[in-house]
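pls ignore typos typing on phone
magnesium ion + seq
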Amino acid sequence: MDCPPFSPSIRILPSQLADQIAAGEVIERPASVLKELMENALDAGATRIDVELRLGGMEVIRVTDNGHGISGQELPLAISRHATSKISCLDDLLQLQSLGFRGEALASICSVSQWEISSRRQAEDHAFSLRHDQPKQLLPVNHALGTSIWVRKLFYNTPARRKFLRAERTEFRHCDDVFRRMALARFDVGFYLKHNGRQLQRLPAVSDDVGRSRRVAQLCGQAFVKNSLLIDFPHADMRLWGWISQPGYSRQQTDQQYFYINGRIIRDRVINHAMRQAYQACLGPGRHAAYVLHLELDPASVDVNVHPTKHEVRFREARQIHDFLIRCLRQSLQRDAALTRPTMSDRIGEQAQDYAKPQLAGESQSVSSSDSLAGGQSWFGQVQAVLLDRFIVTQSPQALFLLDVSRIQALLSVWQWQQAYRQDQIKQRPMLIPQRLQLNLNQRQQYVRQQRLLTGLGFDLTQLGPGELLLRAVPSWLQGFDSQRLLLALLANEVDEQAVFGLIETQLLLQQYDLNGIDFRRWLQRVAAERDKLADCWRVLSEADLRHWLNQAPAHD
Ligand code: ADP
Ligand code: MG
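k done
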């Protein structure tokens, strides 16, 4: 499309363009289309959903359901922006029963793909269809009760977005993730998945614990179900049920953590915090619990209208929910394993075991004169204990060491980042959920000045409005740190290229590094390689020091 010559006059955007802009918020890749279409099918009361993909969803995404369908008359409306059958007033929004409510998904999807939609509504004799090349012309077609939506060639008309699509395998993996999440959300619905003509999943609807556990095993693995507890806690107007891993089963990643609120998958700080705390006493550092949990509560007590992708929520009584979760989980875990709170020495024992991995055990731990990392062994020896989520005690044959992980990590991160910046090799890590940031007046002014610098440092920021930014990606060296906090601190100061890394260092040294997910063995090798430069971040412990530290470490509660 040719752009008209620049002129300062204000005009209403053509609706196709407005839809494409809106699509930027919700449709990031094939998996986001799949999510929206499957949510619509569930909202339509489907008991069976068939998904067919080609080329990881980049070429074709087709979702067929047996829900209540859309009448021919309403088909054009369904693909219009801000058209929804799910809410009609603010009160409905506060009492949301459906997954969708924004009335934007179909309009967005249709603005960036070649699509076709066919549907037959219960009361009607015929099915009707609409296609992207004749969006106004309703055609009678054959179709069973329910709806089929084909989405072909996603982003064919927005090449800039198409460029961001990844390899087929990656896009398929994202779609597969969405499919799994949906299938774990609703056991009473059958889900079927085909990719490039191959049937990959067949999950008939189930209605009892045996059937539900079978589905969980199919999607999360037999090992998880075997090593998990099936829990069910009804409590006043809430209910928590699902599968939680037993203390003996843990994972290196958080990839098997599914949490649903009223059937909607969510990622939420309050929930994550509660889950981590509930498991804290029984998992070593860097290990994660696995769970498929459903929390059912009064829709009025949770606000899902926080973010376009609807993954975030806001609770009216966050504290109450947090504590309820911890209570239920601890009770189950303790009942199961008669788990008593481990003493400090138990914990040290466990962690020592955890780190005494085969490569390290039995190897010579002598430190050669050149202090080389013989056989992958770190100069600092092995981790014996983690204190206050910040320090580690390690033991080599020569000595015990106390290392300040947060401080070390802050310095290592800043050095690496600075080097990459100088060499123009900045790496970014996309945020799981892009974050909105509110700026005060000073930060707004700073943003105008620092915008280029921040982009150069690896922050991907889009201005949403005056004083509001969307943070989509952060420099990868910030993993484990609170990057938003850092960003806001940068914006609170007058900084330039010369001074910025000094400020970053100060800020990161103030933060506590998140030990979750750290692979201490590799990390210790890195630290050992830089140990002279990091000398003020670690010290040799005497026995008295150790005693002092062990007494100071609070019981994990
Ligand atoms: P929302 O789900 O937020 O209402 P959408 O753009 O996803 O917005 O869909 C618009 C409307 O189209 C829905 O409110 C619903 O009435 C109708 N619709 C979409 N998909 C289906 C479907 N699979 N079955 C029945 N109705 C549907
Ligand atoms: Mg929808």
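The radius of gyration is 27 Å. The CA atoms of residues 430 and 473 lie 4 Å apart. more later
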